[in-house]
Design a protein that fits this description.
- The chain is mainly alpha-helical and about 80 residues long.
- The chain is elongated.
- The chain starts with 9 loop residues before the first helix and ends with a helix.
Length: about 80
């Protein structure tokens, strides 16, 4: 049987996930622009987690999501 190896900075990924869920709740209640700032912050945390874990897919996806929120706020 193989042992489960936990990745480092697991607490940061949980915090980023909670921030992302909180942002989704703000979006569900249409609390603009707060949800956009929340999404940018939580995706920024996920970028950091991706860097710490050396996961290029996390870095790529969350960088572009953050850019989408920035552009959305810029042109609103």
């Amino acid at each position: 049987m193989t042992d489960i190896v936990e990745k480092p900075y697991q607490w940061l990924s949980w915090f980023a996930s909670i921030a992302l869920i909180t942002s989704a709740i703000l979006a569900a209640f249409n609390l603009y622009p707060y949800y956009s700032y929340g999404f940018m912050a939580s995706n920024g945390l996920w970028i950091l987690v991706g860097i710490l874990w050396k996961e290029k897919s996390l870095i790529f996806m969350n960088t572009f999501l953050t850019l989408i929120y920035i552009v959305g706020l810029w042109f609103k």
